[in-house]
Amino acid sequence: MYEQEAGADRRPVLVVGAGPVGLTAAAELRRRGVPVRCVDRAQGPSPLSKALAVWPRTLEVLRRLGGGKRIETHGLPIESLRYHSNNREVARIRFDDRTRPVTLPQPDVEALLGECLSELGGEVEWGTELVALEQDAHGVTVELRTADGTAVREEFSYVLGCDGASSTVRERLGIAFDGSTYAPLFALADVRVEGPLVHDANYYFCGPKGVVVLVGLPGGRFRVFTAAPAGTTREDIDLALIQRLLDDRGPGGLTLHDATWTTGFSVHARHAERTRVGRVFLAGDAAHIHSPAGGQGLNTGVQDAHNLAWKLALVHAGRAHETLLDSYADERGQVARTVIRQADLQTRAWTPTKRWHVALRDTALRVASALRLGDIAYVPGLAGLTYVYRQGAAVGPAGSVGGFTTGALAPDRTVWDRRTTRRVPLRLALTDLRMTLLVAGPGDHAVPAAATALAATLQQQYGDLVETRYLDTTDALLSDTAPRDAGLKRNDGRFALALVRPDGYVAVCGGGRGPELVRDWLRTAFPAQGHRPAATATAVTESDSESELKEALL
Ligand SMILES: Cc1cc2nc3c(=O)[nH]c(=O)nc-3n(C[C@H](O)[C@H](O)[C@H](O)COP(=O)(O)OP(=O)(O)OC[C@H]3O[C@@H](n4cnc5c(N)ncnc54)[C@H](O)[C@@H]3O)c2cc1C
Known about the structure:
Layout: E1 13-16, H1 20-31, E2 36-40, E3 53-54, H2 56-64, H3 68-74, E4 76-77, E5 80-85, E6 88-94, E7 102-103, H4 106-119, E8 124-126, E9 128-135, E10 140-146, E11 151-156, E12 158-161, H5 168-173, E13 177-181, E14 186-194, E15 201-207, E16 210-216, E17 222-227, H6 239-249, E18 255-265, E19 268-272, E20 276-277, E21 280-282, E22 288-289, H7 297-316, H8 323-350, H9 355-370, H10 373-382, E23 400-401, E24 404-405, E25 414-417, E26 422-425, H11 426-429, E27 435-441, H12 449-462, E28 466-472, E29 477-479, E30 496-500, E31 506-510, H13 514-525, H14 544-552
Parallel strand pairs: 1-2, 1-12, 2-8, 5-15, 12-21, 25-29, 27-28
Antiparallel strand pairs: 3-7, 4-7, 5-6, 9-10, 10-11, 13-19, 14-17, 14-18, 15-16, 16-17, 19-22, 20-21, 23-24, 25-26, 27-30, 28-29, 30-31
Helix pairs in contact: 1-4, 1-7, 7-8, 12-14
The protein binds flavin-adenine dinucleotide.
């Protein structure tokens, strides 16, 4: 997809694992023109429902990959989280269009991603296990073993370990996976429930003996899960036990029957000491695992893959500096630590050990509900909309201007996109295959000449990597060209520049210093452009018109 530098690496990237994370990585890399192989030691996709909640930021990623139809037909939008204590509702969090999650069981997410991968010409090599791996500065040699015992050694440019919590890739790299395992075993059933529950809500029945959670599933069942009493083994867990725990901890009057899956599972909180060693990366459960509280596991992993794919595609094509890849560990490590901390807090609230813990938890829930703290602070975080990447090579210096914040997602305020003649959230109107220089300012003011000059220079130097769009902030109009300035006031408007990355995050933004920041960031991340042929590689240096822009910008 990207024009390849002469001498660019043409060997494929190996994705190990075809769970949701590996499939996202393989599809996103293929979309960007990277040759990919994806192997999985299982004989085919897992039918187990496992992850259920898909939050808005992940929905965005899946829809971009073409999964919109399956999300509409197979997903169940969740309207609220309802917290009960001692048989009374103590708190309710309602979702809005921006924050609403969809219950879409993991097999559907994997099927969606698998379809997308095959539409892009890719496939999963099932029954193929990575057993050994070694690397040097130039590539990674792996040993792959197929189900019939045949072993082959092959060389790849990069390897992505998306091989789950017991990752072989992580183990072969000798990376520690420190953390802890919670004492109780958790019991789970996907089951029909007779009783007065609405289907599009998640219930948390909090009693002195623990919390039992019920999540509506598409098709009429509920997922029921709760911590099992001390001493329970996996073999003890069956529907009768889960019914007893529900009677004990729930509101009463709920009868379970017709289970499609009953299991016991341990909950861990661990993260890999490193997620990159040379040409090998870890993503998803291979890099971090935590309690299902908050339903973040699959979501965090899909976003790891999304974060890494565009960077790797640019580096693989020889268009970006290798250091861009370091930002993957910086950015996603920051997110993983936050997710693990929050899931841990919630899990402890689910398993209180003292009476005063229960009283404190219920009071905290009531206060948070009354102040709508959940809707304002907690839910946008779960939705994946509030992370701000503060360090690493893929963001510039911290700053905010005109609604843009460096390291945060570009805003999703609705705009009229002249290109598609549709009303859409701004972030979704921007391409995810290139970066976008957004020039934002009031429509009745001429865009400063320096902004259009900068756009022209970027077009010349970064050609297929950056496109420029103009946002009229007065009328929320997004255009491909600057408005003609005849009759407009000149340069006394308030303009802002934001360079938005292919993953929708703002790499850098600024008012007066905008041009300089954009230029510096591009130079740091994409030094390879300096080696492009002289005919296309005009150096981006400050021009008179950029000085003019500085005066006009905020
Ligand atoms: C009961 C339960 C409930 C959950 N609920 C939620 C929820 O509501 N929301 C949420 O976001 N998350 C939830 N999760 C977590 C979620 O299931 C995981 O985070 C998610 O599956 C991680 O995806 P992954 O692709 O990283 O790993 P996996 O899904 O584990 O996929 C790894 C793949 O790698 C393959 N593999 C392993 N080793 C090798 C090898 N050496 N060679 C080749 N292939 C290999 C495996 O066969 C597997 O297919 C839940 C998990 C469980 C168990």
